[in-house]
Write a structure and sequence with these properties.
With about 325 residues, the protein is mostly helical. The chain folds into 2 domains: about 240 residues, no CATH class; about 50 residues, no CATH class. The protein has 12 helices and 3 strands, in the order ααααααβααβααβαα. Strands 1-2-3 form a 3-stranded antiparallel β-sheet. Helix 5 packs antiparallel against helix 10. The longest helix is centred in the last third of the chain and has 39 residues.
Length: about 325
């Protein structure tokens, strides 16, 4: 019994080094190294930190609340990072990078050139954002001057032409883009149920994360290296601005959901869930059957005549 468990463990350990599993492992290691590089850059003198408001916050709450609570409050108010948040953001970074890329990274090894480009894009983008022209957000409240309009127009035209190329050459993975769209639509509906005062804030991590889904044909050098550029900026956004980078909607403070609201929400979602199960049973079963027949069609029927007649009688042609 013990020997069998040891063999099973060794077999599971060997599965790690299958190309599919090891490619994912190496990609996530690359993203972790990219995250550490962004943290190094953030701690360097090249990235300015605003300390005036943070110091005032510490002074204001000194003696009024517990010391540890003071740091938590002031860190939150001033978007300052603690070691605990550094680790937490690293975990979120791994989860998000895997979620965005899991369907594309399993069958391919991303070489050092990919990661050199990713690291370079993160560094260059971080330093560019220190310039006054680039210090703005795309949201409902931003006032755009002439310089910002020219900058956004130039970037928009470049991306538009690049996306036209992807559309023309049919290099876009629509399935994942539709899923992301449905996810944010669902979040919008949840918020819209309780308030109409919704503000949009398009963080650059959201923008480049979605754009990366348009460049997943890695046999093309343009897709390969442009995806590397976008992933560098994506990880930089998570590192510099935490998990809040993926939130598209901002609302004023609203208290937690009431009991009656959750009854309504849970009942409505349960009905929707049952409806989706019904759709699967009605429309997806035929697809599964087609898949079975497709597998049967892949059999080399020309070899059947070469078999012994008795063997061909015993051979099961159609799967159960």
């Amino acid at each position: 019994m013990c020997l069998g468990q040891i063999r099973k463990f060794i077999s599971s350990f060997k599965d790690i080094f299958i190309l599919k599993n090891y490619s994912i492992f190496l990609y996530l290691l690359g993203s972790i190294n990219l995250y550490f590089m962004c943290e190094l850059l953030k701690a360097s003198p090249y990235i300015k930190r605003e300390t005036y408001n943070y110091d005032n916050c510490l002074s204001y709450f000194e003696g009024k609340i517990d010391t540890q609570e003071i740091f938590k409050v002031c860190d939150m108010l001033n978007h300052r990072e603690s070691y605990n948040s550094f680790i937490t953001n690293l975990i979120f970074n791994i989860i998000l990078v895997y979620s965005v890329n899991r369907e594309f990274i399993s069958e391919r090894y991303f070489d050092l050139k990919y990661w050199i480009v990713s690291h370079g894009s993160a560094i260059i983008y971080s330093l560019i954002c220190e310039l006054e022209l680039f210090k703005f957000s795309i949201d409902s409240d931003t006032n755009y001057n002439f310089g910002k309009i020219v900058l956004l127009s130039a970037v928009g035209i470049f991306l538009f032409l690049l996306l036209l190329r992807q559309l023309y050459q049919n290099m876009i993975n629509y399935n994942y883009i539709i899923r992301i769209t449905l996810l944010y639509s669902f979040i919008y509906i949840l918020i819209r149920l309780v308030t109409e005062n919704i503000k949009f804030h398009i963080h650059h991590a959201i923008s480049v994360g979605v754009l990366s889904l348009f460049f997943t044909n890695f046999d093309s050098n343009i897709d390969y290296y442009f995806h590397a550029i976008l992933m560098g900026i994506f990880v930089q956004g998570i590192n510099f601005f935490t998990i809040h980078e993926i939130f598209l909607f901002n609302i004023n403070h609203i208290s937690y959901p009431s009991f009656n609201f959750m009854i309504f929400l849970s009942a409505g979602f349960s009905i929707f869930y049952l409806f989706c199960i019904l759709i699967k049973r009605l429309f997806c079963k035929q697809k599964e059957n087609n898949e079975d027949y497709r597998l049967f069609d892949d059999i080399d029927l020309s070899k059947i005549n070469q078999l012994d007649p008795m063997d061909s009688i015993e051979m099961q042609l159609i799967p159960n």
